[in-house]
């Protein structure tokens, strides 16, 4: 941590602890003071509460949170004096992580420069990358500007709607690797599919394939030491992303690596909503069938996934790896246009937030969205309402079942405003809806790891693929419309008559959501 934030943060902790000690010392001393109880209380509360209020306000405003987050935290401190300070230090403060994220951005820029010349040489051609439909030109230029994401024009994609079909291809690709396997996942579980992946990676390492793996320390908090040690002992290089203490109690911490990326030999890549765990195969007794969207990518777009992994690897290991072996020349016949976009707190722009906003606001005919969490910031909410009021057919598919209490109710709390604007919202009935998918006008689609919520679009490390191939988009739209047949539409007038209990939980969810 740099000196100034470190001193400021430490100073705030000292103030908070001192004020709390003053508070409890005052209680003990006041018992012996020759004054009334009201006078005693006023005496020992006046100074510490003033110091408390000043220190908390300074800490919050210096973090430069948006107004909604700032007001929500201030209300927490008002409702829970002193206790709120420690709650904020444990869950809300982010000086240290912000500094590390900034440092990651600087390292990522260096790595990007080292790999850019390789991609530039491979991708050099005389054709105009923006000689395409209007939507592709606008989105392509935006993503090039806000995330340095080139338009890869020689790629091929295959989409999967569940873990059964996706994991077959994933295991097949790992088992046929000849040079390297790179993977990073938010969640890796020590269960049947997790062990199948582990065994395949160990077999690769024994064959001389270089295997590197990154797992998020919070998302994968249940991953056992035995699992990790078995990989390491076989020669697999394993690293945790942003390790924290007590991950079970800190599952909602900021700056998590929510990416799900696999790259094999620089030729084949996978990206989407599937983590590694049996529930993603539909084996959860609670959720049952798991509906997701995952991509297999071949061709030049794999370079984008590779670049993201190499930047993350340098961050967690300080090891610089770059070379033409990671970006082999594509010999296939794929002609799909694809952009791979990374976003996170290490980036200069909120790339995916801007992209989602551009997708919605630029639609002329329809916008189809599938997301497990519908908690966008106000600008994106406004774009959705404006699109619907302008005559655009906006349909949103969300889960019927909750998997995270507060996020679920925050999602429910946004439904009424969207329905009022004419947006059609459906609850998926067949199982759990986990897809992260946006489809616009049959011209553009995005599939990846980012949910339609504040955490994904402003806080976590995410990665999405933007697709412009008509055939691919039509297939995704057809599947989306089939999913609506397994869903129940929310009727506005009926929704208005929901019980008070639901309205109360929605209010709690809306209040808590800005605290992310």
Describe the secondary-structure layout:
Elements: H1 3-30, H2 37-62, H3 67-79, H4 83-92, H5 95-123, H6 134-147, E1 152-160, H7 163-175, E2 180-185, H8 192-206, E3 210-216, H9 225-233, E4 237-241, E5 261-264, E6 268-272, E7 290-291, E8 294-299, H10 302-317, E9 336-343, H11 351-361, E10 366-370, E11 374-375, H12 378-389, E12 393-399, H13 405-420, E13 424-428, E14 432-433, E15 437-440, E16 444-448, E17 452-453, H14 454-459, E18 462-467, H15 470-485, E19 487-489, H16 492-496, H17 500-512
Parallel strand pairs: 2-3, 3-4, 7-14, 10-12, 11-17, 12-13
Antiparallel strand pairs: 1-8, 1-9, 2-5, 5-6, 6-8, 9-18, 10-15, 13-19, 15-16, 16-18
Helix pairs in contact: 1-2, 2-3, 3-4, 5-10, 6-11, 7-8, 11-12, 13-17
């Amino acid at each position: 941590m740099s000196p100034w934030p470190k001193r400021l943060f430490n100073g705030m902790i000292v103030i908070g602890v001192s004020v709390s000690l003053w508070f409890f010392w005052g209680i003990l001393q006041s018992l012996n003071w020759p004054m009334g109880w009201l006078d005693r209380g006023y005496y020992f509360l006046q100074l510490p509460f003033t110091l408390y209020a000043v220190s908390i306000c300074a800490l919050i405003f210096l973090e430069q949170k948006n107004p909604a987050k700032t007001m929500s935290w201030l209300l927490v401190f008002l409702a829970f004096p002193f206790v709120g300070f420690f709650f904020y230090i444990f869950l809300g403060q982010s000086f240290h992580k912000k500094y590390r994220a900034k440092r990651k951005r600087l390292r990522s820029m260096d790595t990007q420069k080292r790999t850019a010349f390789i991609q530039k040489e491979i991708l050099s051609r005389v054709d105009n990358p923006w000689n395409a439909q209007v939507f592709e030109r606008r989105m392509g230029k935006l993503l090039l500007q806000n995330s340095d994401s080139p338009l890869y024009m020689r790629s091929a994609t295959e989409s999967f709607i569940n873990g059964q079909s996706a994991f077959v291809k994933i295991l097949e690709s790992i088992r046929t690797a000849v040079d390297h396997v790179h993977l990073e996942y938010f969640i890796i579980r020590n269960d049947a599919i997790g062990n199948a992946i582990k065994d395949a990676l160990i077999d690769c390492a024994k064959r001389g394939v270089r295997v590197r793996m990154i797992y998020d320390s919070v998302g994968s908090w249940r991953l056992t030491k035995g699992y990790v040690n078995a990989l390491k002992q076989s020669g697999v290089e394993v690293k945790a992303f942003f390790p924290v203490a007590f991950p079970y109690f800190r599952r909602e911490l900021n700056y998590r690596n929510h990416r799900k990326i696999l790259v094999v030999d620089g030729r084949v890549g996978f990206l989407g909503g599937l983590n590694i765990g049996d529930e993603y195969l539909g084996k959860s007794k609670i959720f049952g069938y798991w509906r997701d969207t995952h991509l297999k990518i071949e061709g030049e777009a794999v370079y984008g996934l590779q670049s993201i992994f190499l930047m993350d690897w340098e961050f967690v290991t300080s090891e610089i790896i770059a070379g033409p072996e990671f970006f082999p020349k594509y010999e296939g016949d794929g002609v799909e246009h694809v952009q791979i976009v990374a976003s996170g707190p290490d980036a200069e722009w909120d790339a995916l937030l801007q992209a989602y906003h551009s997708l919605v606001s630029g639609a002329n005919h329809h916008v189809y969205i599938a997301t497990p969490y519908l908690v966008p910031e106000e600008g994106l909410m406004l774009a959705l309402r404006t699109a619907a009021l302008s005559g655009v057919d906006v349909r949103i598919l969300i889960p019927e079942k909750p998997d995270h209490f507060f996020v679920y109710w925050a999602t429910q709390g946004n439904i009424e405003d969207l329905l009022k604007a004419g947006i059609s919202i459906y609850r998926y009935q067949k199982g759990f809806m986990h897809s992260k998918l946006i489809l616009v006008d049959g011209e553009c689609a995005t599939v990846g790891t980012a949910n339609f919520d504040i955490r994904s679009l402003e806080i976590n490390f995410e990665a999405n693929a933007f697709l412009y191939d008509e055939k691919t988009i039509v297939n995704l739209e057809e599947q989306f419309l089939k999913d609506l047949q397994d869903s129940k539409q929310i009727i506005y007038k009926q929704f208005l008559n929901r019980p008070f209990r639901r309205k109360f939980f929605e209010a709690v969810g809306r209040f808590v959501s800005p605290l992310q």
